[in-house]
Specification:
The chain is about 25% helix and about 30% strand. It contains four helices and ten strands. Strands 3-4-5-9-8-7-6-10 form an eight-stranded antiparallel β-sheet, with helices on both faces.
């Protein structure tokens, strides 16, 4: 009897475990962003999808306040953090973005007038959000933090998520002059 029980336990331990498929919803972060961009970064199998957010992500979600937001999505043992901010009256300009994109270890990213870079584990994308009416200098920034990488394919996926986030927030939340001119599709990396 003991031999049979021992054989059963051994067989159970050697049996391949079937991990669950990570079910990423069609839209994430207050239903504001396409889930496909997140799904492209998260593993297909493992711990189930979950998300957490603060601030405003969905400009059409009914919130009247314009508040920078952070959304963190989890699945398959990995996470992606998506942040957006408005820097009004800041000394950091698009010239500074160009300088930082040229620094050692940075990979340039461009989406029409939006510029940015990938460095370490984060992709940064900025667009000028200055207002002609009140002459205020401002930038909208989107950060996507995933994992430290130099893999161009992973950087492209992060940049695509940054582009979708930037288009949404610059056009609908911060209503930047010229944001409607941001092109559709993926940004240029490199």
């Amino acid at each position: 009897m003991g031999v049979l029980a021992g054989a059963g336990v051994t067989a159970w331990q050697m049996w391949p475990s079937e991990e669950a498929t990570v079910a990423v919803p069609a839209h994430v972060c207050e239903s504001a962003l396409p889930g496909a961009d997140v799904k492209a970064l998260l593993p297909a199998k493992g711990k189930q999808f979950a998300e957490w957010h603060t601030g405003t992500f969905n400009p059409e979600g009914g919130s009247a306040s314009k508040v920078p937001g952070t959304c963190k999505v989890y699945g398959g043992g990995k996470s992606v953090t998506i942040k957006h901010s408005l820097y009004a009256g800041s000394d950091y300009t698009m010239k500074d973005v160009a300088r930082d994109a040229s620094s050692k270890g940075a990979t340039r990213i461009a989406l029409g007038e939006a510029k940015g870079f990938h460095e370490g584990d984060t992709t940064y994308l900025f667009v000028d959000c200055s207002s002609v009416q009140d002459e205020t200098k401002a930038l909208v920034e989107v950060d996507i933090t995933y994992q430290k990488t130099t893999d161009r394919a992973v950087i492209q996926k992060m940049a695509s998520l940054a582009a979708d986030t930037l288009r949404l927030e610059a056009q609908k939340l911060w209503t930047c002059d010229g944001a409607d001119g941001l092109p559709k599709g993926s940004p240029q990396v490199g």
